[in-house]
Amino acid sequence: MHLSPEVPLVWYLLLSAVLFCLGVVGFLIKRNLITVFMSIELMLNAVNLSFVTFAHQWHDVKGQIFVFFVMVVAAAEAAVGLAIIIAVFRARATLAVDRIDLMKL
Amino acid sequence: MHLILFIIFAALCLTGAVNLLFQKQPINSALSLIVVMTSLAVLYLLLGAEFLAAAQVIVYAGAIMVLFTFVVMLLNAGREERTLGSSAYRTVGFPAVAAILAVIATGFMKLQGFGDAGIQDHITSTADLSTVLFTRLLLPFEVTSVLILVAILGSVALARKGDAEGREPR
Amino acid sequence: MTILQFFLWSLLKVIVVTVVLLMAVAYTVLLERKLVGRIQNRWGPSRVGPFGLLQPLVDGAKSFLKEDIIPTAVYRPLYLLAPVIALSCALISIAVVPFGDPSITGPGNFHVFQIADVNIGLLVILGITSIGVYGIALAGWSSNNKYSLLGSLRSSAQLVSYELALGLSLVGVVMRSESLNLDKIVQTQATHGLLSWNLFGGFQFVAFFIYLMAAFAETNRAPFDLPEAESELTAGYHTEYSSMKFAMFFMAEYANMITVGCVATLLFLGGWTSPFGNLLPTPNNIVIRSILPMFWFVIKVFSFLCLYVWVRGTLPRFRYDQLMNYGWRWLMPLAILNIVGTSLWLAYR
């Protein structure tokens, strides 16, 4: 199985950069509270990929442990965030970010 | 082998992410995000991070995204209406994203001494990971468990019915 | 061994295992109908073939030939995707299960009794089962039917809650064998037969009890079959499914039962090792030596399936709040206590 060509690690980093930017674009153009939140998760995942790549490059476990912590925090964030979304939906009966504008100037 | 797997799953990742942006139904966006996450798990496996690959599938795809689909189903979120929104994101947002991408990409391309990844050439075992996690990083680990406890309490307090004094609704 | 040989051997193993698994699924259905029949003082299916043994084949033919109805109001892409997700996740997880003695290998040190020997085998099974939730959740949502939606909401909440207790109950076993590799977990239970099984020698009977309860809930089986409680929800998440698509959900449920039985066997009941340890002499014949472990494995999984059916025939269904209370207030703390107890035992024995 060693006749395989290898992949430059920079490709992984570029992939993670592109995924991160797609997450940012999603955060900007999505108009539904839940999908905006999903774009944030996409950004977190993209960053995780670059952490794992660096951990592979420097043979250091700490990069992977950081990903582990990011996952834990993302789980906590998802629980609280979705609870907020449910509370907002109860109060305003909508998920469109344009209609949730009571705090807007 | 590594190259083929990388190309397949990187392409899957990118199509999933792009699909997330273009789908109008929130449930389809959620499913494309699941595709992104599971293919990222395969990429972690290619980079020798076994435990993280499994954790990615179990925690992200199996728990967090189930929560998302659960909320989508519970609130019966239908098609999203594309409004114009603020014009700020078109004038500032997209150029900013392009700039970020350009900066990060050139930064990565200029990295010196970055190697290649072959298949199975450096596998971090679960034991290696946990040795560091439970000795040198024990305090952060315990702190995250407190964080999760706080998050549980917070989400219960937020999502329960009734007013601020905790009275049940009539 | 070249890549081509590797692929051909793997393909052969995959085909054999899938065929055997599907046959086992078909006959588990028959086993359930027969046993439940006996529990309820009736015969069960007995007309087709001797003792009704051909019943699964006829049932299969029936579901193939039935009219395939797709209701007009469903959301088609997900409606069609859901049964595929459910069935494929149920079938994939069998890939990491070792069925027999790994010291007997094929050409080129090739595993004969296991499709893939993975370092993190246990986590792979947990991961694939957690993906399987989407089959049920999407089926309910895309059906555009209130009963289906209620069934799938119930089931996704139930599966996520009980996955916690399930995962925590396995920690004690993993601590004892210091590995997530299923082969290694079996090896730690191999020395003294019955006495070194995790269930007895590893003092994991509490963990086994928690695993049993959580597994019943994970596979949506009685007494936790609330997602498809027919007296309240017509048929739950698969109300709108007919013909082969319904059969796929049905097969997924039984395949999941078998996987859960395999995992219980591997983790608590010593896997393919003999329950008598070294009391039985090791046979010299290579054929008997490779068949005997498989025989023990199949016997153990079979008894686990019988237990499943027995529980189904005995216990009434839980109420939904009881189910949630039970999972979060009893099983979770019990599992955590078990972890604490096991680690103290392992540290000071």
Could you give a short description of this structure?
Chain A has 105 residues and is an all-alpha fold. Chain A contains three helices and one strand, in the order E-H-H-H.
* Regions with little confidence, pLDDT below 50 for 5+ residues of chain B: none
Class of secondary structure makeup of chain B: mainly alpha
Radius of gyration of chain B equals: 21 Å
Main structural class of chain A: mainly alpha
* CATH level-1 class of the domain at 1-79 in chain B: Mainly Alpha
Order of helices and strands of chain A: EHHH
> What is the level-2 CATH architecture name of the domain at 1-79 in chain B?
Up-down Bundle
Largest interface: A-B, 74 and 83 residues
Number of helices of chain A: 3
Shape of chain A: elongated
Q: Globular, elongated, flat, extended or rod-shaped: what is the shape of chain B?
A: globular
CATH architecture of chain A: Orthogonal Bundle
Q: Order of SSEs of chain B, N→C?
A: HHHHEHH
Mean pLDDT over the full residue set of chain B: 82
Q: Strand fraction band of chain A? A: under 5%
- Classified in CATH, the superfamily of the domain at 1-79 in chain B is NADH-ubiquinone/plastoquinone oxidoreductase chain 6, subunit NuoJ
Helix content of chain B: over 70%
Fold-level CATH name of the domain at 1-79 in chain B: Four Helix Bundle (Hemerythrin (Met), subunit A)
Can you describe this structure?
The complex is a heterotrimer of chains A (105), B (170) and C (349). Chain A is mainly alpha-helical. Chain A has one domain: Helix Hairpins. Helices cover 75% and strands 2% of the residues of chain A. The longest helix of chain A is centred in the C-terminal third of the chain and has 32 residues, at 61-92. Chain A starts with 6 loop residues before the first strand and ends in a 13-residue tail after the last helix. The model of chain A has no long low-confidence stretch (mean pLDDT 84). With 170 residues, chain B is mainly α. Among the domains of chain B are: 1-79, NADH-ubiquinone/plastoquinone oxidoreductase chain 6, subunit NuoJ (Four Helix Bundle (Hemerythrin (Met), subunit A)); 125-162. Chain B is 71% helix and 1% strand. Chain B is built from six helices and one strand. The mean pLDDT of chain B is 82. With 349 residues, chain C is mostly helical. Chain C has one domain (64-348). Chain C is 65% helix and 1% strand. Chain C has a two-stranded antiparallel ribbon with strand order 1-2. In chain C, a hairpin with a 3-residue loop joins strand 1 and strand 2. In chain C, helix 1 packs across helix 10 (286-314) and helix 5 (146-177) runs parallel beside helix 11. Chains in contact: A-B, B-C. At the B-C interface, helix 2 and helix 3 of B face helix 4 and helix 5 of C.
